[in-house]
UniProtKB/TrEMBL annotation:
Region annotated Disordered, chain positions: 233-252, 304-327
Domain PCI: 4-165
Pfam family membership, one: PCI
Subunit text: Component of the COP9 signalosome (CSN) complex.
Keyword set, alphabetical order: Signalosome
Family: Belongs to the CSN7/EIF3M family. CSN7 subfamily.
Keyword Heme recorded: no
Organism whose genome encodes this protein: Aspergillus lucknowensis
Name this polypeptide is given: PCI domain-containing protein
Ranges of compositional bias, category Basic residues: 318-327
PANTHER family to which the protein is assigned, alphabetical: COP9 SIGNALOSOME COMPLEX SUBUNIT 7, COP9 SIGNALOSOME COMPLEX SUBUNIT 7/DENDRITIC CELL PROTEIN GA17
Lineage of producing organism: Eukaryota, Fungi, Dikarya, Ascomycota, Pezizomycotina
Length: 327
Protein backbone atom coordinates (compact mmCIF):
# COMPACT_ATOMS: atom_id res chain seq x y z
CA UNK A 1 0.00 0.00 0.00
CA UNK A 2 2.93 2.40 0.60
CA UNK A 3 3.97 1.92 -3.03
CA UNK A 4 0.50 3.01 -4.12
CA UNK A 5 0.88 6.21 -2.09
CA UNK A 6 4.32 6.84 -3.61
CA UNK A 7 2.97 6.37 -7.13
CA UNK A 8 0.10 8.73 -6.38
CA UNK A 9 2.50 11.39 -5.12
CA UNK A 10 4.71 10.99 -8.17
CA UNK A 11 1.71 11.26 -10.48
CA UNK A 12 0.69 14.56 -8.84
CA UNK A 13 4.10 16.23 -9.33
CA UNK A 14 3.48 17.21 -12.93
CA UNK A 15 0.35 19.13 -11.91
CA UNK A 16 2.21 20.76 -9.01
CA UNK A 17 4.86 22.01 -11.43
CA UNK A 18 2.19 23.45 -13.71
CA UNK A 19 0.61 25.25 -10.75
CA UNK A 20 3.99 26.77 -9.89
CA UNK A 21 4.73 27.88 -13.45
CA UNK A 22 4.28 31.43 -14.74
CA UNK A 23 1.33 30.34 -16.84
CA UNK A 24 -0.72 29.67 -13.68
CA UNK A 25 -1.60 33.35 -13.37
CA UNK A 26 -4.85 32.80 -15.25
CA UNK A 27 -7.80 31.46 -13.17
CA UNK A 28 -9.06 29.43 -16.11
CA UNK A 29 -5.63 27.82 -16.57
CA UNK A 30 -5.64 26.88 -12.88
CA UNK A 31 -9.14 25.46 -13.20
CA UNK A 32 -7.95 23.29 -16.07
CA UNK A 33 -5.09 22.02 -13.89
CA UNK A 34 -7.63 20.96 -11.24
CA UNK A 35 -9.83 19.27 -13.82
CA UNK A 36 -6.96 17.28 -15.31
CA UNK A 37 -5.52 16.34 -11.90
CA UNK A 38 -8.81 15.03 -10.59
CA UNK A 39 -9.49 13.05 -13.78
CA UNK A 40 -6.01 11.45 -14.00
CA UNK A 41 -6.19 7.69 -13.33
CA UNK A 42 -3.16 7.64 -10.99
CA UNK A 43 -3.68 10.72 -8.77
CA UNK A 44 -5.38 10.00 -5.44
CA UNK A 45 -3.81 12.61 -3.11
CA UNK A 46 -4.19 16.35 -3.69
CA UNK A 47 -3.04 18.20 -0.54
CA UNK A 48 0.26 19.30 -2.07
CA UNK A 49 -1.51 20.73 -5.12
CA UNK A 50 -4.12 22.39 -2.93
CA UNK A 51 -1.41 24.31 -1.04
CA UNK A 52 0.01 26.02 -4.15
CA UNK A 53 -0.51 29.81 -4.18
CA UNK A 54 -2.01 29.73 -7.66
CA UNK A 55 -4.68 27.28 -6.49
CA UNK A 56 -5.46 29.31 -3.39
CA UNK A 57 -5.80 32.41 -5.57
CA UNK A 58 -9.11 31.05 -6.83
CA UNK A 59 -10.63 32.14 -3.48
CA UNK A 60 -10.10 35.77 -4.54
CA UNK A 61 -13.22 37.83 -5.13
CA UNK A 62 -11.78 38.73 -8.50
CA UNK A 63 -12.12 35.14 -9.69
CA UNK A 64 -15.07 34.63 -12.05
CA UNK A 65 -17.99 32.98 -10.18
CA UNK A 66 -18.06 29.97 -12.49
CA UNK A 67 -14.42 29.21 -11.55
CA UNK A 68 -14.60 29.77 -7.81
CA UNK A 69 -16.09 26.32 -7.22
CA UNK A 70 -13.02 24.52 -8.57
CA UNK A 71 -11.03 24.92 -5.37
CA UNK A 72 -13.97 23.51 -3.40
CA UNK A 73 -14.11 20.60 -5.85
CA UNK A 74 -10.40 19.95 -5.28
CA UNK A 75 -10.97 19.93 -1.51
CA UNK A 76 -13.72 17.32 -1.91
CA UNK A 77 -11.35 15.14 -3.95
CA UNK A 78 -8.71 15.58 -1.23
CA UNK A 79 -10.76 14.59 1.81
CA UNK A 80 -14.46 14.63 0.91
CA UNK A 81 -16.90 12.04 -0.42
CA UNK A 82 -19.45 11.60 -3.17
CA UNK A 83 -22.20 12.71 -0.79
CA UNK A 84 -20.29 15.93 -0.04
CA UNK A 85 -20.23 16.68 -3.75
CA UNK A 86 -23.95 15.96 -4.05
CA UNK A 87 -24.78 18.26 -1.14
CA UNK A 88 -22.55 21.20 -2.17
CA UNK A 89 -24.07 23.69 -4.63
CA UNK A 90 -22.38 25.58 -7.44
CA UNK A 91 -19.75 22.96 -8.18
CA UNK A 92 -18.52 22.12 -11.69
CA UNK A 93 -20.04 19.12 -13.40
CA UNK A 94 -17.94 15.99 -13.28
CA UNK A 95 -16.73 14.03 -16.26
CA UNK A 96 -17.08 10.25 -16.29
CA UNK A 97 -13.45 9.82 -15.21
CA UNK A 98 -13.87 12.35 -12.40
CA UNK A 99 -17.07 10.67 -11.18
CA UNK A 100 -15.39 7.25 -11.10
CA UNK A 101 -12.37 8.72 -9.28
CA UNK A 102 -14.53 10.42 -6.64
CA UNK A 103 -16.53 7.23 -6.07
CA UNK A 104 -13.30 5.27 -5.61
CA UNK A 105 -12.01 7.82 -3.10
CA UNK A 106 -15.34 7.74 -1.29
CA UNK A 107 -15.13 3.94 -1.16
CA UNK A 108 -11.81 4.26 0.69
CA UNK A 109 -13.41 6.52 3.28
CA UNK A 110 -16.44 4.26 3.73
CA UNK A 111 -14.26 1.14 4.01
CA UNK A 112 -12.32 2.79 6.82
CA UNK A 113 -15.34 4.00 8.80
CA UNK A 114 -18.34 1.74 8.18
CA UNK A 115 -18.70 -1.84 9.48
CA UNK A 116 -20.26 -3.96 8.06
CA UNK A 117 -19.97 -2.56 4.57
CA UNK A 118 -23.18 -3.77 2.96
CA UNK A 119 -24.25 -3.42 -0.64
CA UNK A 120 -27.15 -1.24 0.46
CA UNK A 121 -24.96 1.27 2.29
CA UNK A 122 -22.48 1.51 -0.55
CA UNK A 123 -25.07 1.88 -3.30
CA UNK A 124 -26.85 4.61 -1.36
CA UNK A 125 -23.65 6.48 -0.49
CA UNK A 126 -22.25 6.29 -4.05
CA UNK A 127 -25.52 6.85 -5.95
CA UNK A 128 -25.36 3.49 -7.70
CA UNK A 129 -28.59 1.87 -8.84
CA UNK A 130 -27.49 -1.71 -9.62
CA UNK A 131 -25.41 -4.20 -7.59
CA UNK A 132 -23.43 -4.98 -10.74
CA UNK A 133 -22.26 -1.34 -10.90
CA UNK A 134 -21.08 -1.56 -7.29
CA UNK A 135 -19.27 -4.83 -7.92
CA UNK A 136 -17.53 -3.31 -10.96
CA UNK A 137 -16.40 -0.33 -8.86
CA UNK A 138 -15.13 -2.55 -6.02
CA UNK A 139 -13.31 -4.77 -8.49
CA UNK A 140 -11.62 -1.71 -10.00
CA UNK A 141 -10.52 -0.60 -6.53
CA UNK A 142 -9.11 -4.06 -5.80
CA UNK A 143 -7.12 -4.26 -9.05
CA UNK A 144 -5.86 -0.71 -8.53
CA UNK A 145 -4.49 -1.78 -5.08
CA UNK A 146 -6.71 0.75 -3.34
CA UNK A 147 -8.28 -1.86 -1.09
CA UNK A 148 -7.96 -5.55 -0.27
CA UNK A 149 -11.47 -6.96 -0.20
CA UNK A 150 -13.75 -9.85 -1.04
CA UNK A 151 -17.27 -9.60 -2.44
CA UNK A 152 -19.95 -11.66 -0.66
CA UNK A 153 -23.12 -11.21 -2.75
CA UNK A 154 -24.72 -14.44 -1.46
CA UNK A 155 -24.72 -13.45 2.22
CA UNK A 156 -27.64 -11.87 4.00
CA UNK A 157 -27.25 -8.97 3.60
CA UNK A 158 -24.72 -8.91 0.74
CA UNK A 159 -21.49 -7.33 1.94
CA UNK A 160 -18.04 -6.25 0.85
CA UNK A 161 -15.43 -7.62 3.29
CA UNK A 162 -12.54 -5.15 3.30
CA UNK A 163 -9.32 -6.22 5.06
CA UNK A 164 -7.01 -3.29 4.20
CA UNK A 165 -7.27 0.24 2.79
CA UNK A 166 -4.52 2.21 1.05
CA UNK A 167 -3.53 5.47 2.83
CA UNK A 168 -4.68 7.71 -0.02
CA UNK A 169 -6.97 10.25 1.64
CA UNK A 170 -5.69 13.63 2.76
CA UNK A 171 -6.46 15.01 6.22
CA UNK A 172 -8.90 17.88 6.47
CA UNK A 173 -7.24 20.83 8.28
CA UNK A 174 -10.11 21.13 10.76
CA UNK A 175 -9.40 17.55 11.88
CA UNK A 176 -5.83 18.34 12.91
CA UNK A 177 -6.59 19.61 16.48
CA UNK A 178 -8.59 16.45 17.20
CA UNK A 179 -5.82 14.26 15.81
CA UNK A 180 -3.19 16.12 17.86
CA UNK A 181 -5.29 15.69 21.01
CA UNK A 182 -5.74 11.98 20.33
CA UNK A 183 -2.03 11.46 19.69
CA UNK A 184 -1.12 13.43 22.83
CA UNK A 185 -3.41 11.25 24.95
CA UNK A 186 -1.89 8.16 23.39
CA UNK A 187 1.61 9.45 24.10
CA UNK A 188 0.66 10.04 27.74
CA UNK A 189 -0.67 6.50 28.09
CA UNK A 190 2.47 5.09 26.52
CA UNK A 191 4.61 7.09 28.98
CA UNK A 192 2.59 5.74 31.91
CA UNK A 193 2.98 2.17 30.67
CA UNK A 194 6.73 2.64 30.23
CA UNK A 195 7.05 3.94 33.80
CA UNK A 196 5.14 0.93 35.13
CA UNK A 197 7.37 -1.42 33.17
CA UNK A 198 10.52 0.29 34.44
CA UNK A 199 9.25 0.08 38.03
CA UNK A 200 8.52 -3.63 37.60
CA UNK A 201 11.99 -4.21 36.16
CA UNK A 202 13.58 -2.40 39.12
CA UNK A 203 11.54 -4.52 41.57
CA UNK A 204 12.60 -7.74 39.84
CA UNK A 205 16.25 -6.70 39.96
CA UNK A 206 15.99 -5.82 43.67
CA UNK A 207 14.34 -9.17 44.50
CA UNK A 208 16.99 -11.01 42.52
CA UNK A 209 19.80 -9.19 44.35
CA UNK A 210 18.17 -10.00 47.71
CA UNK A 211 17.92 -13.70 46.82
CA UNK A 212 21.57 -13.77 45.75
CA UNK A 213 22.62 -12.13 49.03
CA UNK A 214 20.69 -14.71 51.07
CA UNK A 215 22.22 -17.55 49.07
CA UNK A 216 25.71 -16.18 49.52
CA UNK A 217 25.13 -15.84 53.27
CA UNK A 218 23.90 -19.43 53.49
CA UNK A 219 26.96 -20.70 51.60
CA UNK A 220 29.30 -18.78 53.90
CA UNK A 221 27.62 -20.33 56.97
CA UNK A 222 27.97 -23.83 55.48
CA UNK A 223 31.65 -23.28 54.66
CA UNK A 224 32.38 -22.00 58.18
CA UNK A 225 30.57 -24.98 59.73
CA UNK A 226 32.55 -27.46 57.63
CA UNK A 227 35.81 -25.69 58.42
CA UNK A 228 35.05 -25.84 62.16
CA UNK A 229 34.08 -29.50 61.90
CA UNK A 230 37.34 -30.37 60.14
CA UNK A 231 39.32 -28.62 62.89
CA UNK A 232 37.74 -30.67 65.76
CA UNK A 233 39.46 -33.97 66.95
CA UNK A 234 37.59 -37.11 65.89
CA UNK A 235 37.58 -40.76 66.83
CA UNK A 236 40.31 -41.73 64.44
CA UNK A 237 40.93 -45.00 66.29
CA UNK A 238 37.43 -46.20 65.48
CA UNK A 239 37.19 -44.80 61.96
CA UNK A 240 40.75 -45.46 60.75
CA UNK A 241 43.58 -47.60 62.08
CA UNK A 242 43.15 -50.16 64.87
CA UNK A 243 39.43 -50.93 65.36
CA UNK A 244 40.13 -51.86 68.98
CA UNK A 245 41.68 -48.47 69.56
CA UNK A 246 45.19 -49.86 70.16
CA UNK A 247 48.51 -49.02 68.61
CA UNK A 248 47.66 -45.57 67.17
CA UNK A 249 47.02 -42.12 68.55
CA UNK A 250 43.83 -40.21 67.79
CA UNK A 251 43.98 -38.11 64.67
CA UNK A 252 42.01 -35.08 63.64
CA UNK A 253 39.22 -35.77 61.25
CA UNK A 254 39.58 -34.49 57.74
CA UNK A 255 36.01 -35.12 56.72
CA UNK A 256 34.29 -33.57 53.80
CA UNK A 257 30.62 -33.67 52.88
CA UNK A 258 31.13 -36.61 50.52
CA UNK A 259 33.03 -38.55 53.22
CA UNK A 260 30.09 -38.17 55.61
CA UNK A 261 27.64 -39.49 53.03
CA UNK A 262 29.91 -42.46 52.22
CA UNK A 263 30.30 -43.36 55.89
CA UNK A 264 26.55 -43.21 56.52
CA UNK A 265 25.85 -45.45 53.57
CA UNK A 266 28.39 -48.04 54.69
CA UNK A 267 26.68 -49.33 57.83
CA UNK A 268 29.33 -52.07 58.37
CA UNK A 269 31.81 -49.24 58.93
CA UNK A 270 30.34 -48.67 62.40
CA UNK A 271 29.46 -52.24 63.39
CA UNK A 272 30.36 -55.71 62.14
CA UNK A 273 28.02 -58.44 61.15
CA UNK A 274 28.58 -62.11 61.68
CA UNK A 275 29.04 -64.77 59.11
CA UNK A 276 29.33 -68.24 60.56
CA UNK A 277 30.12 -71.42 58.75
CA UNK A 278 30.06 -74.68 60.68
CA UNK A 279 32.46 -77.60 60.18
CA UNK A 280 31.40 -81.18 60.72
CA UNK A 281 33.72 -83.46 62.62
CA UNK A 282 33.39 -85.94 59.80
CA UNK A 283 35.75 -83.83 57.75
CA UNK A 284 33.25 -82.04 55.50
CA UNK A 285 31.47 -78.72 55.58
CA UNK A 286 28.04 -78.72 57.13
CA UNK A 287 26.47 -76.87 54.20
CA UNK A 288 26.37 -80.06 52.04
CA UNK A 289 28.99 -78.66 49.70
CA UNK A 290 31.03 -81.95 49.94
CA UNK A 291 34.21 -79.93 50.38
CA UNK A 292 36.87 -81.46 52.62
CA UNK A 293 37.35 -80.14 56.15
CA UNK A 294 41.08 -80.09 56.68
CA UNK A 295 40.80 -79.88 60.47
CA UNK A 296 38.89 -83.11 60.68
CA UNK A 297 36.58 -81.95 63.46
CA UNK A 298 33.61 -79.65 63.88
CA UNK A 299 34.63 -75.99 64.06
CA UNK A 300 32.56 -72.86 64.17
CA UNK A 301 34.33 -69.90 62.52
CA UNK A 302 33.10 -66.40 63.36
CA UNK A 303 34.03 -63.81 60.75
CA UNK A 304 33.80 -60.45 62.51
CA UNK A 305 33.51 -56.89 61.31
CA UNK A 306 37.16 -56.68 60.42
CA UNK A 307 36.84 -59.47 57.93
CA UNK A 308 34.16 -57.58 56.03
CA UNK A 309 35.68 -54.14 56.06
CA UNK A 310 39.33 -55.06 55.70
CA UNK A 311 40.53 -52.26 58.04
CA UNK A 312 43.91 -52.91 59.76
CA UNK A 313 43.97 -55.93 62.09
CA UNK A 314 40.19 -56.10 61.98
CA UNK A 315 40.62 -59.10 59.69
CA UNK A 316 41.57 -61.34 62.66
CA UNK A 317 39.32 -64.26 63.27
CA UNK A 318 38.20 -65.93 66.47
CA UNK A 319 37.75 -69.67 66.25
CA UNK A 320 35.80 -71.81 68.62
CA UNK A 321 36.20 -75.59 68.70
CA UNK A 322 33.35 -77.65 69.80
CA UNK A 323 34.16 -80.84 71.74
CA UNK A 324 32.41 -84.05 70.93
CA UNK A 325 30.89 -85.26 67.76
CA UNK A 326 27.86 -84.07 66.09
CA UNK A 327 25.10 -86.52 66.68
Amino acid sequence: MDQVHTRAMDALQSFVHLADSSSASSPRFVANIITNATASPHTYVFAELLERPAIQALRSPDTPPELQGYITLLEIFAWGTWQDYQQTPNLPLLSEDQARKLRLLSLLTLASSVKPLTYEILMDSLSLSAPSDLETLVTTAIYSSLITARLSPATTPPTVNVTSVAPLRDVKPTYLPTMISTLSAWESRCGSVIKDIEAEIAKIKADSAQRRAKENTRLVVIEKTLAKWNAEPGEAGRLGGDPAGRGSAPKKLGWKARDIGTALRNRDFFGGGSNKREFDDDGFWDDNSNELDALGSGMDIDEGAGARTGLGSAGARTAKRFLGKKS
